[in-house]
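@channel sequence for tomorrow's demo:
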Amino acid sequence: DFNQLILELDLEENPAKYSLINIIKYLNKLNLFSDAPTSLQELVTPGKCSVINLRGVEQELQEVVVYKLVKDMFEERKKGNIPPFFLILEEAHNYLPERSFGEAKSSRILRQVASEGRKFGLGLCVISQRPSRLDKSVISQCSTQIILKVTNPNDLRAIANSVEGLTYESEKEIKNLNIGCALVTGIAELPLFVNIRP
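C-alpha cells (generated this afternoon):
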C-alpha cells in the first residue's frame, strides 16, 4: 500500500526520504499498480492477443514496464510455466534504440530475447517507422522483414544494410511503394513485392 509506505518513510530520520516520498506519490498517481494484477498466465493464453497500451505514460517508465514484463515472460517461458508466444513490440526504436542513440532500460533483455527467444518458443516481432534508430544487432536477428514505404535516406540506408540481396532498383522502389504494398524479405531467395490485404 503506497499510503502506508509514505507514512512509514515520513517517520524515519533520513533527509533523502522526501525525494523517495515524491517518487512513491508519482508512481501511485500513475494507476499502474493494482492489488489484483493480471497474471502472466492470463496475459499469455493460446488463441488470445493481449495488448499492453502505454500511451501517455512517460518514456522512462514505459521502458521499465517493457523491461519487467519481457524479463518475467521470458523467464516463465524458459521454465515452461507459460505457453509459447509471439511478442510484438510496436515503436521498437523507443525500447531498443541503436546504441549511438543511447540505451533504454529495456534494451538488454530485448536483445537477449531476439538472440535466444526462438529456442525457448518466444518469437519476437519489432515494428518501427525509424529503422535507422533501431538496434542493428536485433535487425540482423530478424529472419523476415516486411518493408513498407520509406523515404528518409537514413532509414533507407539502414534497410539496405540489413537486407541481403536488396538491389539499388529495389531500394528505389521502396521510396515509391503504394499504401498496402510491401517488400518482403527472408521467406524467399529474393525480396518479393506483395500487396497486403486490408
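heads up for whoever presents: The mean pLDDT is 87.
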